[in-house]
Specification:
Blueprint (H helix, E strand, L loop, with lengths): L1 H18 L16 H4 L39 H28 L4 H11 L1 E6 L2 E13 L3 H9 L3 E8 L4 E7 L9 H7 L5 E10 L2 E3 L17 E8 L13 E6 L10 H11 L3 E8 L8 E2 H13 L4 E4 L1 E2 L4 H12 L3 E5 L18 E7 L17 E4 L3 E4 L4 E5 L5 H11 L7 H12 L15 E2 L6
Helix pairs in contact: 7-10, 8-9
């Protein structure tokens, strides 16, 4: 009986193949005969699964395939991938930053640059005191506004992005959106006409005060010369730090994001500054990332919020290796921090001997630092003027990078040398500590250039321990 069932199944399969779907020689369908399934009624034959046809061979692509999307920072899990991604962000932003700095220094701008900055980064140029300034497009900041000021701004069409209370500096900031049909140049006049009497200012843009040479050491180079056992606290307003770098093993680092991105963006600049600081001892570093995002631009609202956060940590010294235009909000924040005992140390900038003063270094209550090389010669691109207070090594300085180490040049990398010296000797705010610290610093520096305080080297040059 079993043999008969198997034979009938084979017949069924063969008959189905022969009777279904056949075509005549002239292209007409053949009428199928009665289904063999009728003959097998009552027999329990196992159903046969159809065989899937073999795939047709693919034709070669005529277009290049879509590039693989780079992983976002929160998806990267290996140190090597982290370093590669951060290095790529660094490369993408450096060329645009250089072009923008050159446009500001020459007081010239191209339509192509203006369009790119506005479309991709929300930035634009405005004329302030006869010169172009880079500011956040359609943003303005109100400082300690009254209710009447806010009513006047609302009637004029301004909409508030956010209200921020800063406890350390006792500042209240209204970040406002400028109406779409209002030219940035007319903002102040429109607010005054509406009856606003408070302080309103553009959200001015700032950039780091340093550059690099593309020279890499081994992947995890340790570039610090540690002074074991010496602990101190210091604040940084800079980029985020690649805190897992071998050169930062002696540092305790706390970071917070204040930039435009949703997460920290570690970069070469902040990592290098942190490694220079760590070379002076075992620091506790409170680092505020004001440059987070795809490009090395920050704004005054981010910087002032970061200054307030760092000051709230109780540190006596804040290093700011960045530079930009004078701004009344930045001036007020610096003054208030100085009044309660904080010492702000800043790079004077790299816009050359004939350049205009840059801020915050040019404020009277800020310590301005310039850069020299190992032969005590001034950095060729350093600003020269009354805001220069001290000089330190800042030319071809070997410091940590996202990948190993690099040689850096710029006033950015001289500033943390002076800041660390002061921080080591100024552990507490206020009192006579600051005056005593500056007496020690003034006795340690070497007078270069013209006798006394001069516009090139300031009061003098602070030699490194090995000089």
């Amino acid at each position: 009986m079993k043999r008969l069932q198997k034979l009938l199944v084979l017949c069924l399969c063969f008959g189905t193949a022969m009777t279904y779907g056949e075509q005549s020689a002239i292209g007409q369908s053949v009428v199928p005969a009665a289904s063999p399934l009728v003959l097998l009624a009552g027999l329990q034959a196992r159903p046969v699964r159809p065989v899937r046809p073999a795939p047709r061979p693919r034709r070669p692509a005529t277009r290049p395939s879509t590039p693989i999307r780079q992983p976002t920072a929160d998806l990267i899990v290996t140190d090597r991938a982290v370093q590669a991604r951060m290095a790529e962000i660094e490369r993408q932003s450096s060329r645009l930053v250089e072009r923008t700095q050159r446009a500001l220094e020459e007081d010239k701008k191209s339509d192509k640059l203006v369009a790119r900055l506005q479309k991709n980064y929300g930035l634009t140029f405005v004329k302030v005191d006869g010169r172009f300034r880079l500011v956040s497009f359609r943003e303005i900041i109100g400082v300690n506004l009254t209710d009447d000021d806010r009513i006047a701004a609302a009637k004029t069409g301004f909409r508030r992005y956010r209200l921020t209370n800063l406890p350390a500096t006792a500042l209240q900031l209204d970040l406002l959106q400028v109406p779409e049909n209002m030219p940035m140049q007319e903002v102040a006049a429109r607010l005054t006409a509406a009856g606003a009497t408070g302080l309103f200012t553009y959200n001015a843009v700032y950039m780091p005060a340093g550059s690099t040479q593309d020279e890499f050491d081994e992947p995890n180079a340790d570039v610090t010369k540690l002074v074991e056992g010496v602990s101190f606290s210091i604040g940084m307003i800079d980029t985020a730090i690649h805190h897992k770098h071998k050169s930062l093993r002696a540092a305790s680092i706390t970071q917070k994001n204040f930039g435009r991105s949703e997460e920290l963006t570690p970069r070469n600049h902040g990592t290098a500054i942190a490694s220079i600081i760590t070379g002076k001892g075992n620091p506790t570093i409170y680092a505020a990332d004001v440059f987070s995002g795809p490009i090395l631009f920050s704004d005054v609202e981010s910087i002032v919020r970061a200054m307030d956060w760092v000051a709230g940590k109780g540190v006596g010294v804040i290093n700011m290796s960045l530079a930009g235009p004078e701004n009344p909000l930045l001036a007020e924040a610096v003054k208030r921090l100085s009044d309660i005992g904080h010492i702000v140390v800043a790079a004077v900038g790299n816009n050359g001997k004939q350049g205009e003063p840059l801020y915050p270094a040019s404020y009277d209550n800020v310590v301005g630092v310039t850069a020299v090389d190992t032969k005590s010669r001034i950095f060729k691109a350093a600003y020269q003027g009354r805001s220069v207070d001290y000089a330190a090594l800042g030319v071809k300085v070997r410091a940590a990078a996202i990948r190993g180490s690099k040689k850096y040049s710029g006033t950015s990398f001289a500033s943390p040398v002076i800041a660390s010296f002061i921080a080591l000797r100024y552990p507490q705010l206020g009192g006579q500590g600051a005056n005593d610290t500056f007496r020690i610093l003034n006795a340690r520096v070497v007078d270069l250039g013209l006798p006394g305080h001069d516009p090139v080297f300031g009061i003098g040059f602070l030699p490194s321990p090995n000089q």
